[in-house]
Write a structure and sequence with these properties.
The protein has 294 residues and is of the alpha/beta class. The protein has helices at residues 22-33, 44-49, 56-70, 82-85, 89-104, 119-130, 153-162, 178-181, 191-202, 249-253, 266-269, 275-293, and strands at 37-40, 76-79, 108-115, 140-143, 165-171, 212-216, 234-236, 260-264. Helix 3 runs parallel beside helix 5, helix 3 (56-70) packs across helix 12 (275-293) and helix 6 (119-130) packs parallel to helix 7. One of its GO terms (molecular function) is orotidine-5'-phosphate decarboxylase activity.
């Protein structure tokens, strides 16, 4: 599939498999808006820093401010579903509004929900976030493969059908992740390497970028022992408050660095509630990433 031209703006709400798939839309968004994903993580402490109450009204004000300030600037928003779910149905309603308004402004929405289960339950999770009929329909979803990669099939199938994408947990930045992800199978490969291999197969022949990505922490240092060339995006949390910088990306990701989607949350959000402060922080991170990956 040809790369979308700069004067062609594919719909951010795909209507069918004939439209550009997520990987192509992501490549276009990062090339035109800058290679940056901004998390929407309304921690109670962050709400307090903004002078907001830790309630639904504060949640809505925070989320609306971020989307209005950055929705026409950043390539990707990554709302953390847990911080909305903790308020029950009213919090979910705020999340639904945020998803719709972010996509109306041309930003892609990556729902950070890390769902993972088997059979009909996994199918229901997929329908929640990857079905065009769902009010939470997102451009992509984070998923956990540790009930076996095959358990993700309902999500893989629905993502393909609706032009959406997945980001599979592979090499996460939390120290506890290593005991699972770096465990060695009988064939000598780590579980993380196995997941990366599955994703490479999903993305075979995709152009300009596959729609099935991996989550790989930017704080992990040299990962040259892993084959990150999956022809798909690599979501890289850890920049900013967790200690990684854009300058670290070439060391961590090597030849795959151009496919990295750096994710920043507190590093940008702490500059709110001032909209100009949010925009300036996001632009600075995007410029630093561009300089690092050229």
């Amino acid at each position: 599939m040809a790369h979308p031209s700069p004067d062609h703006h594919p719909s951010t709400r795909p209507s069918g498999p004939q439209d550009f798939p997520f990987g192509a839309r992501l490549r276009h968004a990062m090339d035109t808006r800058g290679p940056l994903c901004v998390g929407i993580d309304p921690h109670a402490s962050l709400l307090a820093d903004w002078g907001l109450n830790d309630d639904v009204a504060g949640l809505a004000r925070f989320t609306r401010t971020v989307v209005e300030a950055l929705g026409e600037q950043v390539a990707v928003f990554k709302p953390q579903a847990a911080f909305f779910e903790r308020f029950g149905s009213r919090g979910i309603a705020v999340l639904e509004t945020a998803v719709a308004e972010a996509r109306e402004r041309g930003a892609l929405v990556l729902m950070d929900a890390k769902r993972g289960d088997i059979g009909s339950t996994m199918a229901a999770y997929a329908e929640t976030f990857l079905s065009k009929d769902s009010p939470l329909f997102s451009d992509a979803l984070t998923v956990s493969p540790y009930l076996g990669y095959g358990s993700l099939k309902p999500a893989v199938d629905l993502a393909r059908e609706n032009g959406a994408g997945l980001f599979v947990l592979a090499l996460t930045s939390n120290p506890e992740g290593a005991e699972v992800q770096r465990a060695v199978r009988e064939d000598g490969r780590t579980l993380a390497a196995t997941m990366l291999g599955h994703l490479a197969a999903e993305n075979a022949d995709a152009e300009p970028l596959g729609s099935f990505g991996a989550v790989v922490g930017a704080t992990l240092g040299d990962l040259s022992s892993f084959d990150l060339a999956i022809n798909g995006p690599l979501l890289a949390p850890g920049i900013g408050a967790q200690g990684a910088t854009p300058a670290d990306l070439p060391t961590v990701f090597g030849d795959a660095v151009r496919n990295v989607v750096p994710s920043v949350s507190r590093g940008v959000l702490r500059h709110g509630p001032d909209a100009a402060g949010l925009r300036s922080a996001a632009a600075r991170f995007a410029d630093e990433v561009r300089s690092a990956v050229v």
